Amino acid sequence: MPYLFHGQRKDEDVVLITRQHPFVLLHPMLVSGAILLVPFLANLVLNFGEALSIILVTCLVFALIHAGLAWYGWNNTLFLLTNQRVVWLHQKKLLNREFSECSLGSIQQVSHELKGLLHTVMGYGNIQIHTGGSQKPFELPNLPDPYELQQEIQRAANGETAGGGEFEEEDV
C-alpha cells in the first residue's frame, strides 16, 4: 500500500521514506539515565532513607517522560522523497511540527556532510539542498547513509527513475 501523508498532491507518489538515524536518540537516553542516577547519588550524600523511594519514583516518571518525548519526536520526523518534491516533516516538540518542502525542479545542487567521528563511524549525516530561489540551503539533519540519499535526490531531480539505490520504502 502506498504511503499517504497530509498535504500530498493527487498526482504525487512517494518514492522514498526514511527517518533520522536512531543514534540521535543517544543523547536523550543518556539524559534520562542521568535523571535516574540523581536520587542514588543524592542519597549517598544526604541519606534520604525512606524518602528515597518517593524520589526514585518521581525521577523514574520524569526519565520515562523525557525518553518518551524523544522517541515520539524521532518516530514522527520523516524525510519523504516524492516524484515532485522533497518533504521534511520535523516533529520538534509534542505539539510543534514543521513541514518543509522543496520542489525537485528548483534543485540546483545536493550535497552531504558527515561531521566528526561519531557521524562517520555510525554512517549518518546532513544533506543540504541548494535551490535557485534561496541563499540558505534546505537542510535535512542526521539522516542515515547521506551519500545514498543524496544520489536518490539527485536522480529524482534529474528526472531519472528513483529507487536505483539501496533505499526502499519502509513501513511507517
What do you see in this structure?
This protein has helices spanning 26-46, 51-75, 116-122, 146-157, and strands at 14-19, 78-82, 85-93, 96-103, 107-113, 124-131, 138-144. The protein has 172 residues and is of the alpha+beta class. The strands form 2 sheets. It has a 4-stranded antiparallel β-sheet with strand order 1-2-3-4. Helix 1 (26-46) runs antiparallel to helix 2 (51-75). The chain has 4 helices and 7 strands.
Q: Strand percentage, roughly? A: 25-35%
Task: Sketch the topology as an H/E string, one letter per element.
Answer: EHHEEEEHEEH
Number of strands: 7
Average pLDDT confidence is 88
Largest sheet: 4 strands, antiparallel
Q: Nearest-angstrom radius of gyration? A: 20 Å
Pick out its properties.
172 residues, alpha+beta, four-stranded antiparallel beta sheet, three-stranded antiparallel beta sheet, 7 strands, 29% strand
Can you summarize this structure?
Helix content is 38%, strand content 29%. With 172 residues, the protein is an alpha+beta fold.
